[in-house]
Amino acid sequence: MNKITILWVDDEIDLLKPHILFLESKNYKVVTSPSGQDGLEEIKNSFFDIVFLDENMPGLSGLETLNEIKKYDASIPVVMITKSEEEYIMDEAIGSKIADYLIKPVNPNQILLSLKKSLDNSRLVSEKTTSNYQQEFRKIAMDLSMVNSYEEWAELYKKLIYWELELEQIEDSGMFEILESQKVEANSQFSKFIDKNYKSWFKDGDAPTMSHTLFKNKVQPELEGNKTLMVVIDNLRYDQWLAFEKTLSVHYKKKQESAYCSILPTATQYARNALFSGLMPSEMEKRYPNWWKNDTDEGGKNLFEAEFLGEQLKRLGLNLKWEYHKISNLKQGKQLASNFKTQKDNDLTVVVYNFVDMLSHSKTEMEVVKELASNDKAYRSLTLSWFKNSPLLDIIQQAQDLGMKLILTTDHGTINVKQPSKVIGDRETSLNLRYKTGRSLTFEDKDVLSTKNPQEIYLPNINLSSSFIFAKNDLFFAYPNNYNHYVSYYRNTYQHGGVSLEEMIVPFVVLDPK
Questions:
Q1: Sign of CA dihedral 174, 177, 183, 184
Q2: pLDDT tens profile 364-373
Q3: Residue 348: beta bridge partners?
Q4: Which residues have CB under 8 Å from 17's CB, separation 6+?
Q5: Tens digit of pLDDT for each residue in 6-28?
Q6: InterPro entries this protein is in (predicted)?
Q7: Which option is the CATH number for 214-413+503-513: 1.10.443.10, 3.40.720.10, 2.40.160.40, 3.30.160.40?
Q8: Is 70 exceeded by the pLDDT of residue 418?
Q9: From CA 16, how far away is CA 5, in angstroms rounded?
Q10: 23 by DSSP, 3-state: which?
């Protein structure tokens, strides 16, 4: 292994001989330079892993030399060393993205620690992260055999996401593959849990908070005495919320974070209508036949969310001044952002933002998006980039200025589908890849959660012999006709409607303005 090479630039370099000998005894190679100008020449002629740079030198000062180094090669880590404790020097140096800042006199161990922080940080973090996950792996594996409630599944899923985010930061593909296999096993066990318990939740009354009870159980208690912005980002996974959290923390402090269970199918027309109406789909169909549309009906399926919300607010006895806004494109987002101050007198402002759902569909249809969102890490990165530059963030910033509480949630999540499952249905069978409803469905029993009586889980009977099936794990439905073509086309795309941790365990977050 090649020695790490240090360039030390200091006009009093002879006084640093003990430090240099110490570093050489630790197997570092040290090249010295007596001035900023000479140091720049060294950098242009040789490769250095790191530069130690004195601030107070004749000729080019340390700050001037630092600027020239960054112009030449911004990737070289530079540690600024100075006698001065003046704040403006620290600000200038830190603003120039130095790796570390040391104040003379420095001792050899300070130098060594700075080197490790700057050069060995990734390796040390990687080793520690790997070690910690290896210990946690055993505990998660044990928990998988013991989890018996939705709340416990939510906590376990959060652990898996935590380790996914940690491990993707280090260069250990082996550990990441182990985690991926653990996620597959977790989804398999979760599907069994849902298969066993989902129907009983509607009979025994021992259900977790679900789409149709979210507003009553979690939103309503937050509305008392607080002007509130409620943002529903369609199709937002829990890991995507965690990616957003740091950006939001500049404007809001988190008061409460929890998960709730999206109903089946985990699809917008079912889950989001249930959220706003406070009713299950069969109840919506019965009470509001002019507002509810089944899979086989023509026209938009979520055109009456504001009306559903108004009816729910009445049933809950909430006499609020409220507005509802649905954002489906950039123009609509900018328009709401430019006029958001008009919301200041509302008790409740609800904003539905559709971008993430459109992104997941675009991954299926557009090659460029397939390249940009080739896996979960890239998908998170893409959604975070959108969020940072979206009108939604502008809206949230304005809500903070107005002193509004923020509720951020979603209707359902999505999963990257990998494996096909053959299904046969007639022409009236629904088109979704993660659930099907229709007559005379033929399918692989092991791949699905099924119900021949949709009413038992409060889904509409499209006709007398209709049934529903929901794909488990990372499966997607494919018809035998043109099977290979459709499998190739839809594999590794993001779909929703079925049974998985990613689709059913979704975030509900309450934040207070800073």
A1: negative
A2: 666 766 777 7
A3: 228, 322
A4: none
A5: 999 999 888 889 999 999 999 99
A6: Alkaline_phosphatase_core_sf, Bact_response_regulator, CheY-like_superfamily, Sig_transdc_resp-reg_receiver
A7: 3.40.720.10
A8: yes
A9: 16
A10: helix
Give me the residue label for tokens 């911004």: 74
pLDDT digit string, tens, across residues 215-238: 999 999 999 888 999 999 999 999
* Those residues with Cβ within 8 angstroms of residue 428's Cβ, 6 or more apart along the chain or in another chain: 296, 438, 439, 462, 463
CATH assignment, 5-106: 3.40.50.2300
Q: What is the rounded distance in angstroms from the CA atom of residue 256 to the CA atom of residue 217? A: 14
Asked if the peptide bond before residue 265 counts as cis, ω within 30 degrees of 0, the response is yes
Strands (E), 43-181: 50-54, 78-82, 100-103
Partners of 512 in the beta sheet? 253
Contact of 293 with 299, CB cutoff 8 Å: yes
Record the tokens describing residue 245, joined without a space.
């959290």
Long-range contacts of 245-250 (CB under 8 A, 24+ apart): 247/384, 247/387, 247/388, 247/393, 248/396, 248/406, 248/408, 248/511, 250/514
CB–CB of 259/506 below 8 Å?
yes
Residue type, 55: E
Q: Which two tokens stand for residue 238?
A: 């829990």
- Token output for 300: 């938009």
Average pLDDT score, the chain? 91
295, 437 Cβ separation under 8 angstroms: yes
Q: Is the pLDDT of residue 363 over 70?
A: no
What mean pLDDT do residues 354-368 have?
Answer: 70
In this chain, the answer to whether the domains covering 5-106 and 214-413+503-513 adopt an identical fold is: no
CA distance 116 to 348: 51
pLDDT of residue 196: 95
Quote the CA–CA distance of 205 and 84 in Å, as a whole number.
68
Taking the model in full, what pTM does it have?
0.84
383 near 243, Cβ under 8 Å? yes
Distance CA 36, CA 67 (A): 11
- Three-state DSSP string of 262-315: CCCCCCHHHHHHHHHHCCCHHHHHHHCCCCCCCCCCCCCCCCCHHHHHHHHHHH
Nearest to 102 by CA among 81, 123, 131: 81
Read off the pLDDT of residues 82-91 as tens digits, 9 standing for 90 and up.
876 666 666 7
DSSP track, 304-366: THHHHHHHHHHHTT----EEEEEE-SHHHHHHHHHTGGGGTT-SEEEEEE-HHHHHHHHHHH-
Distances (CA, A) of 406 to 392, 396, 512: 12, 8, 6
Q: Is the dihedral of CA 158, 164, 170, 176 positive or negative?
A: positive
pLDDT, tens only, 26-47: 999 999 999 999 999 999 999 9
Sketch the domain layout of the chain as residue ranges: 5-106, 122-203, 214-413+503-513, 416-496
